Amino acid sequence: MIGIIDYGSGNVQAIATIYKNLNINYQVITKPEDLDKADKLVLPGVGAFDATMQQLIDSGLKDKLNELVFDKKVPILGICVGLQVMGYGSDEGNLPGLGWIPGQVKKFDETKIELKPKLPHMGWNVINDTRNHNLFKGIDNDFGFYFVHSFYFECEKEENILATSNYGGEFTSSIYANHIFGTQFHPEKSHGNGVQLFKNFADLKLC
Amino acid sequence: MLRSRIIPCLLIQNKGLVKTVNFKDPKYVGDPINAVKIFNEKEVDELMVLDIDATRENRGPNLEMIKNLADECRMPFCYGGGITTVEQARKIINLGAEKVALSYSALHNMSLCQEIGSIIGNQSVVVVIDVKRKKLFGGYDIYTHNGIKKSRWKLDDLVAKLEEINVGEIVINSIDNDGTMQGYDQSLVEIIREKCSMPITVLGGAGSLDDIKKLISKFKIIGAAAGSLFVFKGKYRAVLISYPNREERKPIY
Q: Taking the model in full, what pTM does it have?
């Protein structure tokens, strides 16, 4: 069962609808103790970094997630700020992140974006999937994915970069570490490509 | 490369979908959920939904309607109309919208934009500016309450302020061009583009895909929004929801 984490941030219902239409077993989870039932987790996110971290802390999900993801290796997919919280912290806020993947969330350098508009990076952009990972199997890369953000994840280690995109230079648009995945873009709002990505995540065989 | 966005803009009145001309004479064009289903099939870049009565009727957003729309939307979705508190904005994002649009409440109380941005992130805060050409001397006046109340803001000052407080996007809406299908007011867009660096979406006047193409070829990365173009067909304005498919869009971007 795919557990979609509802902590008051992000498009929980849009993801639930996609899994429902795919006939893949899912559950929207609000209580930390219910997370145990899930084989895989999706951590959505729309919001400011500190507000999101605070909601994870207040709901009691932070500790439980650390236990499941870090200790028990339950696969997880973080989306947008759900990816950003996987690092050490963000230039957008003061709270520490979950620290699962070494890296820091930084603001785009506006001086490198030549033409207006500058920030946020908003709209449809393509990704460069250098690793040919199964998470991106069957994606139409001309069509791309929907982004809306001003901050991006800067990985400390090249091995954690799963895909990159270009906006005033190359930036990391997807990260991974074994069973932990994150996308800066919003697959839940990226039409067929997003549906395919959620299906791929459900199908991933991880050890 | 980032692409421009071609955005259907749906106006809601009495829970139904309407289309206006110069912000007047709303014509009923159908059920919003049905329109969203069609736009899903067409894989639209983004969708904007504005409740045009909420502020004028002094009521908050209809959260149940927003939930129903957001559940259906497989594309990014921006909601505007009647938002006056941080809590309303937070709820709307949690229901599944990517962005919230403010107009009167932002112009009236700039700190609200900042407070909302601190919770949902500045990138998700959109300000809609409804403008009308001045009759004499040129320039533009800003209006709120569905084109009824003239704002004291000067356009230049307002855009500079929005840039300063770092909102995510400006939607510039021409009351003169609304529903006329005679093309966008490009000189208006030039003024805004000059004054700020954030994303802009232009609304009001698109009558053909060629109008959208012209806007994009001039401003490169921009949001091209349209109402009539995507809900009417032919000179008798028969109601027909439409949107260019992937292949038809390629030469436009």
A: 0.96
